[in-house]
Amino acid sequence: MTDAPDARRPAEQVASRGATSHSAASPEDKGPEAAAREALLRFGGVDAKLTRITVGLINQTWRVDTADGPFVLQRVNPIFGPAVHRDIEAITARLAECGVLTPRLVRTMDGALCAETAHGVYRLMTYIDGEVVSELTSPARVASMARMVARFHAALDGFAHTFAFTRPGPHDTPRHLAFLEATLRECAEHPQFGRVRPVAAAILAHGRELPALGQLPRRIIHGDLKITNLMFRHGTDDALAILDLDTMAHDTLAAEMGDALRSWCNPAGESEERAELDMALYRAAVDAYVDESGPLLRDEERAALPAGLETIALELASRFCADALRESYFGWDATRFTTRTEHNLVRARSQLSLAASVRGRLRDTAD
Q1: Do residue 316 and residue 257 come from a single domain?
Q2: Residue 199, domain extent
Q3: Tens of pLDDT along 254-293?
């Protein structure tokens, strides 16, 4: 990895010696890369090669190669306010003290944690040399991910932090189901409404039968532990780092691990209509997480893991289904699908199928 002790050097040192700054060409003329290059000027006038990284649905991301080494630049989705960077800075400092590797923010020339421009909020981060995968079939790899997440949670146990940026109920399942109902009322004129409505009805019916999670402690969580938000050492099953920390919040481990397990233990992924829980992957993840967590994980939190998985799978199904009509939030794969609606509808069916699989295999189990 490239995260040497001086990786967070000031922006003045990030700039290539003798580099010529790219002109601030209008992004309307040259697109997202021109806006990204303009934002880079705030971090020291870097003359750099930008390579788009297409993994991820929310933020626009580039690898930035400079004479001083690689960095990562992101245009932050507007759903995250600039204040989120104060949270990232504080919590990643704590994680670094505890040996949990994450990207660290590189400050602008004037010492800011991000660059607010006319075209959006951009941040520059240290680069970690590792491998991101989009599919999991190895129980050993899943177990390594679970152990890293347990160390993440342990590092933040008891860490007092008041979030500068919060989002309303990111894992508030009743709110997401209510939003889906509202979407059906408000988007009835959508040309694909007839295809979306029966899927929405099935999601809402399942939602009425979700198991209760009970009163669980709220902790600092990552908030989006999908497969692509963990990085591995090249060519190994060893988890190396945790990425994309915008979604950190106070919430339950049932929500956190439910979201992780629905991503890790479904080999079909989100873009295939039929999804099932892979029990070998599930057992590997849960056993490793419980073992690494030790006394941190309370009995009631461990018992809530199956219900958390079912709940979060259904919650995500409802979000995809709503966006099939609203077409305003999730990115989509134009190489496989003709419209955003089509891709989101497949995703909604996939997560509904996963929730049904979890219900059939894990309901009334303790792990």
Answers
A1: yes
A2: 139-362
A3: 999 999 999 999 998 888 888 999 999 999 999 999 999 9
Looking at the 3D structure of the chain, how many domains does it have? 2
The half-sphere exposure of 141 on its side-chain side, counting CA atoms within 13 A, is 20
Please state, in angstroms and rounded to a whole number, the distance separating the CA atoms of residues 142 and 222: 17
Which of 73, 92, 126 is the last residue before a domain boundary? 126
Look at residues 126, 161, 185 and tell me which one is the last residue of a structural domain.
Answer: 126
Side-chain half-sphere CA neighbours of 304 within 13 A: 22
Phi and psi at residue 231, in whole multiples of 5°?
A: -115, 145
Q: Please state whether the predicted TM-score (pTM) of the whole model is above 0.90.
A: no
Please give the backbone phi and psi of residue 178, each rounded to the nearest 5 degrees, phi first.
Answer: -65, -35
